[in-house]
Write a structure and sequence with these properties.
single chain; alpha/beta; Immunoglobulin-like; Rossmann fold; 8 helices; about 25% helix
Length: about 350
Amino acid sequence: MKRILTLAAALLLMLPLSAQWLRQPTPNDTLRSTRTLPDGKVLFQIYAPEAHSVSVTGDLSWDKPVRFEKAENGVWKGVCDGLGEGVFRYSFVVDGVRVQDPKAPLSAEQASLLTVGEGYVKDVPHGAVAQRYYYSKNLGEMRRLHVWTPAGYEKSNKKLPVLYLIHGGGDNDASWPGVGAAGWILDNLLAEGKMVPMIVVMPNGTIPVQNEVIPFAEDMVSSIIPFIEAQYNVRADKAHRAVAGLSMGGMETMEVAFNHPEMFSYVWVLSSSLMPGLDPAAESARLRVKENAAKMNRGFKALVFTQGGPTDIAYKNCENTRAQLTKDGLRFDYMENAQAGHSWTTWRADLKTLVPTLFR
C-alpha cells in the first residue's frame, strides 16, 4: 500500500519515547484547511474544538455568506460558492476574533517576530534576498526558493561558491531569511571579513515523502542546482558546493549528500538524525553509507553534525545516528555550538560559526 507521510510529521518521532505521551494526535495534524471541490465550490476547514462560532471573511461574495458546522472531531466546515478562478485573501473568525489560517502553506511567514537585545541588523553593506520560482521536473510543479547574494554582487563578474541551506519541519523557504536571520548574519560576517563571498540558496524542503522516498533529494539535484547554476554567476563544481539543513532539513541533507557525494564538499547536519523511528542500521544501509564511506571520507572536506545540547529533541536520535555512521566507517566532526535545544537560537549560532569555515 502506498504510504504517504510528511517529514514534518516524522519529526514528532524525534521525541524520546518517554515524552511521546505528552502529545496526542488530533485531526489538525492532517487537516487541509481549503479544498476546491469537483463542482468548483471551496471547502473551508479549521480545527477549533472549543470554539462556539466560526466564520470566514476576505475577498468572498458578501451576498453568499459561508455557513460553518462543527463536526464531532472539533473540525468546523463551511462551503463557499461562486468564487471562480483567481487569488483570494481570507481569514477565519473564531468566536469573534479574526485569525490567520494556521494550516495555510505560507502561515509560517505570518508569525510575529520579537527581537530582544541588539538583534542582527547593523550598519553594514547589505546583500539582497530574492524570491525565485523554478519548475520542479520530478514534482511537475512550480516551486519557490529564496536566494541571498552578497553586497556588490550585481556589479561583480566574479563566480561565487554556493551554500544550499534547508529549513526544518513545519517551515518553508522563507524561514531561514526570516526567523533564521540568515541574510543579516551573512551581511555581518562578510562585512567583518569572516567569510568567503558566496551565494546562499534557501529552498523549500516541505514535500510529502512517498513510499519512504524523499522527493526533495531528486528536486535538489535535477531542478534546484541546475536552475541556480543557469541563473547565477557561480562556480559549478563539487569544490564550491555546500549543503546544510536543520532537523527535517538535516534528513534531507543526508539524502542529498550521501546519495550524491560527488556533488558536495561541505555537509552540515544540524539537530537531526537518520529517519527517526526506523532502524539506524537499515537507514544507513539504504543510504549506502558503508559502501561509500571511503569515497565520502576522501571527498567531503567537512561533514559536521551539531546539536543544541541535551535538551535538543533530536539529541538521542543523533547519538544513535553518529554511532551507526561511525560503525559504518564514516568520519565526521561533532559540535554542540549552543545549549539552546531544538531552536532557532541554536541554528543561528550554527550558521554564524560554520559559514566562516566554508570554501577556504
